[in-house]
């Protein structure tokens, strides 16, 4: 019985898979930047997990907040301990979809609009961001840039340092992946 | 059956996210634990924390006089002992520091090296261990005054003015709020009173409990096994502190029965007793500066 269930499950999954056109990476990039006259804050993470399903037109991102590196060690410590509380909420993630048609097997540059939910600091917010996908011989390059407000994610910034952090944080996302066969 | 498969394929991107998170569990290496303590001192005892590579920390440690010294001395506020110090991170594991403490006009220097680093998660490194070596040089030289003035310090040779501390700092961050540190200590005095030992062993235990994201209550206790100092009555050093962090500053309010902030002076030579009210109120303030080019500039966009 168990075997039958397993076989059926495999068939179902394979069937579902055949509709998919997946592109996955474990070394995607997310950086975020804030620039004020008092302080520049730059943080980068090169261990972003990302998957795009061109067939089903949806995608997902997941990243460990502890993986963000700041040049100033103290900022990194405050980011983890006081702002995003990475010990309680280790990940930020995004799930979303787009409506534009694209093929991972046809070369071209696709401008898409991604709609979905971003989860950070245990708060989930709907966001809509523009993105570019460039397909070149099975290699896919994706990028996006958008802004986020820390307060939208219940990240409180004490008034004493409020002027050192921009109200809107600029986020850059870049991924590089190969279309899975 | 096929309909069911269609339903599965039409499922939203949450299954993709689950796939990513499963992969993350398998592939992620553990991170080093950060922020075991807010400052480089629990109160007087050095913590496993040190400035990052290229960062300079200026520390001002200040102790007023004894609380029980009466209203004439404004309960100790008329008097002050001060240590000014600089801590610098050469690498993320190696730090050095220099300072001067007004008690016995003592200069000090230290080297601290992080031997092991605690990692997050189970089955990994459970503790952070640093080795600390300090050297103190007291320059106090009272001039001969009226009869009976103590010239002990005046007649010391240069070598006799030097003392050393070797400590192993063993710390663990048990939770986001609670960290503790065990500190086996070995002190060596080039000069000691004939009734005292030149080599002294002690054990310090200390910890912090965060009460908000940016504040914590700290406690430390230095146990000095008896029989090592006999020339005067000494007490174990016990201190309470309150850490307040604001941006690059850490401000620590301190209550201690020790007047000094140097290991060779507070561990084995604390004359004050909590029971009698020989309590010194004071504070530590540290301010962090990123001085090298690399430490200053962030990554380029």
Structure overview:
The complex is a heterodimer of chains A (181) and B (301). Chain A has 181 residues and is an alpha+beta fold. Helix content of chain A is 15%, strand content 51%. Chain A has helices at residues 2-18, 73-83, and strands at 22-35, 40-53, 58-64, 69-70, 91-97, 108-120, 123-136, 139-148, 169-179. Chain A has an 8-stranded antiparallel barrel. In chain A, a hairpin with a 4-residue loop joins β1 (22-35) and β2. The model of chain A has no long low-confidence stretch (mean pLDDT 88). By secondary structure, chain B is mostly beta strands. Chain B has a 12-stranded antiparallel beta barrel with strand order 1-2-3-4-5-6-7-8-9-10-11-12. Classes of the chains: A alpha+beta (181), B mainly beta (301). At the A-B interface, α1, β1, β2, β3 and β4 of A face α1, α2 and α4 of B.
What is the compact description of this entry?
Chain A has 181 residues and is α+β, with helices and mostly antiparallel strands. Chain A contains two helices and nine strands.
Main traits of this protein?
heterodimer; A: eight-stranded antiparallel beta barrel; B: 301 residues; mainly beta; 4 helices; disordered N terminus
